[in-house]
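Task: sequence design from structure.
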């Protein structure tokens, strides 16, 4: 194992990979800071630019975008009182209150340092836990893989928003899209309508870019005039650099907030938003000065930022070890693995250890580089904020077009992207979440193949999926995951957006 880490370190330290980490982290921070551009959209816009890259370089960039976007949400949350990411809601409460009191720089430093510590903690857990989980899962057969895909699809209940019915319908739409193309067992054509464009199925990138990015631009076009938001007084990060003595009393808070964030991030359907709310709530519960919360409590800001960044490592652990996406963003990363000819899960560690260990090292370096890119992001965003949103929308749409066309240098992909952009716009218009559709498209093909292979091995006996212990346990967990949102709504816990 040590030799894998040394090899990965030497690979990631190559200039092209370091540049990918830096640019990915910077784009992630800026995208996370811009309201309306989520972490999942930032990753989707980055995927097309990874074509032609070595997988290690590609996922170094994508993972850095993911981590950077979660951190970037704190910039607008603190300076403008607007959460760039849903996970930055608690940061608005305490961070913006500090900013209005004249301590914007101190709040930014607290957010940056807590984010880095939480991220580093979760990466260390990921480096230790992923090989252990993957080694156990290597014994999986078709029945276990089908149950695992069902468990992954059960995340839809947590991504459905207010209406579970609409979430399930969206997922069923994605599963239908996964059947388009050539049958993986018989080789027969399905729903191709006589065109060669659909023989290979619907491309993940074109569908994701259309459903998540282009549709958002179409929706924003209905609101052409946006009021400019005034920021709190900001005098520069050099003014209030925190000293070590100020952090001594917060080390315990940093530790358990990071641990809680990592654990919650590993739960399918939970993610950074729930992690930040739970950590913030516990920090308030155990604080010696609970009356300070809501008025600029440093403890609350530390807990929120450490936990939401720690959730990234937990989500990536489950994605790499089992191939289960825990949130919208990791669902996009799962599609990126397939685009690069890789299957996230236990076999990846055996077949391509260079990629897995490269991701470990890249994630570790990202959380260090992110301190620098966030500082630059603060200065850059203060300048970008002077521009109207229409300029950002034009740039994003241009990236969508370049990304979709660049996949195969085909105008057909542009048509597909715009069609899915319209579909995504209509889904959002009528309250249907798009993330479950992407999830169904990504996992549907492997779920179908595993199910049919299991039936072939058992000569048509469907009880194989319930009599094998691991398969039965995974299906039971899927049932629990499907039922969880019902209890979640009764408890009033917000879900990942």
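Answer:
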């Amino acid at each position: 194992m040590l030799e894998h880490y040394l090899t990965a370190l030497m690979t990631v330290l190559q200039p092209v990979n370091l540049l990918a980490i830096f640019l990915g982290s910077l784009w992630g921070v800026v995208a996370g800071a811009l309201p309306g551009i989520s972490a999942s959209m930032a990753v989707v816009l980055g995927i097309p630019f990874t074509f032609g890259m070595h997988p290690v370089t590609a996922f170094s960039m994508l993972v850095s975008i993911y981590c950077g976007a979660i951190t970037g949400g704190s910039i607008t949350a603190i300076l403008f009182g607007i959460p760039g990411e849903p996970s930055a809601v608690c940061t608005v409460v305490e961070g913006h209150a500090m900013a209005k009191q004249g301590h914007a720089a101190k709040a930014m430093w607290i957010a940056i340092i807590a984010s880095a510590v939480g991220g580093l903690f979760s990466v260390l857990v990921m480096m230790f836990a992923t090989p252990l989980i993957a080694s156990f899962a290597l014994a999986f057969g078709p029945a276990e893989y089908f149950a695992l895909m069902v468990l992954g699809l059960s995340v839809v209940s947590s991504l459905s928003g207010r209406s579970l019915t609409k979430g399930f319908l969206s997922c069923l739409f994605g599963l239908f899209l996964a059947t388009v193309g050539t049958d993986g067992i018989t080789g027969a054509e399905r729903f191709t309508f006589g065109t060669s464009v659909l023989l290979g199925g619907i491309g993940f990138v074109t569908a994701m870019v259309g459903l998540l990015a282009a549709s958002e631009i179409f929706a924003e076009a209905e609101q052409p005039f946006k009021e400019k938001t005034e920021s709190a007084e900001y005098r520069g990060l050099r003014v209030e650099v925190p000293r070590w003595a100020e952090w001594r009393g917060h080390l315990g808070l940093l530790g358990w907030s990071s641990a809680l964030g990592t654990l919650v991030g590993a739960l399918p359907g939970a993610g950074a938003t729930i992690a930040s709310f739970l950590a913030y709530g516990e920090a308030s519960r155990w604080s010696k000065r609970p009356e300070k919360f809501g008025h600029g409590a440093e403890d609350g800001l530390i807990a929120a930022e450490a936990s939401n960044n720690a959730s990234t490592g937990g989500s990536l652990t489950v994605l790499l070890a089992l191939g289960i996406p825990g949130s919208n963003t990791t669902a996009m990363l799962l599609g990126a693995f397939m685009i690069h000819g890789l299957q996230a899960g236990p076999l990846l560690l055996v077949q391509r250890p260079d990629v897995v260990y490269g991701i470990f090292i890249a994630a570790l370096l990202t959380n260090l580089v992110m301190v620098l890119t966030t500082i630059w992001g603060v200065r850059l965003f203060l300048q970008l904020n002077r521009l109207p949103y229409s300029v950002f929308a034009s740039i994003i749409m241009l990236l969508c077009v370049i990304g979709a066309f660049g996949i195969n240098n085909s105008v057909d992909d542009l048509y597909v992207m715009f069609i899915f952009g319209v579909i995504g716009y209509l889904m959002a218009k009528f309250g249907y979440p798009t993330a479950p559709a992407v999830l169904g498209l990504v996992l549907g093909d492997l779920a179908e193949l595993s199910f049919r292979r299991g039936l072939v091995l058992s000569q048509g006996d469907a009880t194989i999926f319930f009599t094998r212990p691991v398969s039965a346990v995974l299906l039971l967990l899927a049932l629990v995951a499907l039922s969880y949102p019902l209890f979640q709504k009764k408890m009033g816990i917000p879900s990942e957006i």
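Residues 225-231 have pLDDT under 50 and may be disordered.
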